[in-house]
Amino acid sequence: MIGTYSGTVAQQPSGPSVRRRRLGAELRRIRESAGRQMKEAASLLGCSMGKISNIEQGRYGVKKQELQALLSYYEVEPEVCAVLEDLRREGAKRGWWSVYGLPDWFKPYVGLESDAASVRSFELELIPGLLQTEAYARQVHVAVTRMVAPQDVERQVTARMERQRRLTGPEPLELWAVISEAAVRRQVGGPEVMIEQLEHLRTLAAQPNIKIQVLPFSAGAHGSMSGPFSILSFPEPTDPDVAYIEYPVGGNCVEEPRDVHRFTILFDDLRYAALSSRDTDTLFGAIVKELSTS
User: Fold this and answer.
1) pTM here?
2) Number of C-beta neighbours around residue 226 at 10 A
3) Where in the chain is the domain with CATH 3.30.870?
4) Residue 36: phi, psi to the nearest 5?
5) Domain 96-293 classified CATH 3.30.870?
6) Which CATH code fits 16-91?
């Protein structure tokens, strides 16, 4: 019997997304320790290897009977099985975001963001969602979801405002945002909406858990001209960082350590090339003045 519990299933309170990741990572560790192949696990459950891979990566939940079958096959001791069953049950719960009609491809990110300790974000064309005012967010959703009913737009705007609650409270999310100058100069919703948005950024940047920098046009070419990305870190060291990339019709979480490391290096390059926090605030003030007199 392999039965030695590694202790990698952390007890830090967390939501369903992170618990699914922990369970999946532990199932993979146990399978490999037992000398079992993914195709053997798939044969046991009568499913594809793709499903086993998605379970082990935390993308899919696992049913109670499936978990019991796997753990029996891997010869896991009862006390370890009990811990993993707790993770399975908690991971099966619906997150707060499930009632807002968010796109399926976006839900995994929101779930991970809800449990993250910090987020490093780079944006090319938009103010990051966690920093948007309600008016700005509404204009963005109307522009990118032209075929969506007005009530659905409002639900998604409400969800975005709900996400921002992570920035306040006793253990607030730490956010480091690097934003292209194009995003802060683009008049989303017109001058009034942008003035409110820029003043909002100045207010948020005064909070100790939020750092905002603008990457100026003068920085020239850079390594992320093809699109935005975020890197999420978690309270427990056993929960590895996740990178997230988004494009017009979807988004992907990137978990391969080498790829996440590349995003980390890229973010460091961007923040070094960006304006300081003080110069960023000065730029915001200058743009507000321009918009106020236009």
Assistant:
1) 0.77
2) 9
3) 96-293
4) -100, 145
5) yes
6) 1.10.260.40
